User: Which sequence fits this backbone?
């Protein structure tokens, strides 16, 4: 079992609570749509952003952290992408409701 699923899933489920609170204070629909588009874009570009962050660490001389990031990349990326997509769907659902 990949431990990252256990970490990322509850974090994404907290997003339901946050969206509910925004819905409760009657936030405009365009805010929910913006959140959905934002999380969708981040999910699409997650791998390049991860590589960009790794490159920054490499330039700063953080070689041990970069090595750890490279080893963990294949374990971290699927749960992160799924979590981002789940957050985008939750935001879109609150835009509809």
Assistant:
């Amino acid at each position: 079992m990949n431990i990252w699923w256990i970490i990322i899933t509850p974090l994404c489920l907290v997003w339901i609570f946050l969206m509910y609170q925004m819905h409760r204070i009657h936030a405009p629909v365009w805010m929910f749509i913006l959140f959905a588009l934002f999380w969708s874009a981040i999910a699409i570009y997650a791998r390049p952003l991860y590589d960009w962050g790794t490159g920054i660490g490499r330039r700063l001389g953080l070689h041990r952290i970069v090595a750890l990031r490279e080893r963990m990349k294949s374990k971290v990326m699927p749960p992160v992408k799924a979590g981002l997509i789940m957050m985008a769907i939750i935001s879109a659902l609150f835009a509809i409701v």
Summary: The chain has four helices and no strands. The mean pLDDT is 94. The two ends are 35 Å apart (CA to CA).
